[in-house]
């Protein structure tokens, strides 16, 4: 099972993935938790370039190919081997992020991205994608609060520093993708409390698992 989490900056993906890790562990399911960019040793170096706010002159096409390089390495080194072993793979961002960030927000040709997709992904497509959706102002406020309370202040804030209009394009791009692929996407109201967001995720996830849990178990973590 390949599950991805998507959404604007500050939507709460990392928090929910940490909670989901504990549930999968409690159920004894083999799993891999990973992220893009930065899911491999090489990817971490690419991530440092992509998210550094000092790299203001990074061109959209250069940004795109750095993300694709990270993904090619990530798929070959981590995601595909884990899926072949029968593990659940939970990934913080994947191809949908490229479509909305580099396509919708940066303005790169969506037809070019569509032609690149099979070259990069082969046939690896998520079974389920959770889109954590919330207003841009709420997400960015959370993101900046996280950055200012982290040990690496502003080291990964290149996208947070973009305009509200940029982030609104990202949000609307995600919602459009979700409407186009309703069988894969599940939209979750990320303006709720973390506990309520997690309840919504588990209600949908355990439909896939076919194994309901008690309310107390659902809200664990």
Provide structural commentary.
The chain has 221 residues and is α/β, with parallel strands linked by helices. Helix 1 (13-26) crosses helix 8 (194-209) and helix 2 runs antiparallel to helix 3. Residues 212-221 have low confidence and may be disordered. The chain is 56% helix and 12% strand.
Helix-strand layout with pairing:
Blueprint (H helix, E strand, L loop, with lengths): L1 E5 L6 H14 L4 E5 L5 H11 L8 H25 L3 E5 L2 H11 L4 H12 L6 E6 L2 H13 L15 H17 L4 E5 L4 H16 L5 H4 L3
Parallel strand pairs: 1-3, 1-4, 2-3, 4-5
Helix pairs in contact: 1-8, 2-3, 4-5, 4-7
What are the key terms here?
single chain; 221 residues; alpha/beta; 12% strand; globular
Question: Quick summary of this structure?
Answer:
The chain is of the alpha/beta class and 221 residues long. The protein has nine helices and five strands; from the N terminus they run E-H-E-H-H-E-H-H-E-H-H-E-H-H.
């Amino acid at each position: 099972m390949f599950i991805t989490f998507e959404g604007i900056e500050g939507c709460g993906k990392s928090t929910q993935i940490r909670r989901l890790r504990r549930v999968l562990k409690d159920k004894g399911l083999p799993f891999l938790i990973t992220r893009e960019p930065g899911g491999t040793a090489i990817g971490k170096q690419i991530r440092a370039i992509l998210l550094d706010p000092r790299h203001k002159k990074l061109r959209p096409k250069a940004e795109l190919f750095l993300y694709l390089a990270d993904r090619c390495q990530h798929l070959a080194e981590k995601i595909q081997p884990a899926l072949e072993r029968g593990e659940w793979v939970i990934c913080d961002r994947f191809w949908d992020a490229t479509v909305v960030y580099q396509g919708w927000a940066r303005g790169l040709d969506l037809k070019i991205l569509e032609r690149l997709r099979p070259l990069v992904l082969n046939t690896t497509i998520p079974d389920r994608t959770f889109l954590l959706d919330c207003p841009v102002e709420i997400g960015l406020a959370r993101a900046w609060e996280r950055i200012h309370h982290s040990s690496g202040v502003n080291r990964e804030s290149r996208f947070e520093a973009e305009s509200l209009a940029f982030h609104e394009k990202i949000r609307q791009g995600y919602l459009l993708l979700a409407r186009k692929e309703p069988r894969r996407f599940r939209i979750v109201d990320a303006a709720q409390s973390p506990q309520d967001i997690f309840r919504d995720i588990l209600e949908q996830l355990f439909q896939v698992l076919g194994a309901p849990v008690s309310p107390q178990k659902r809200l664990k973590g």
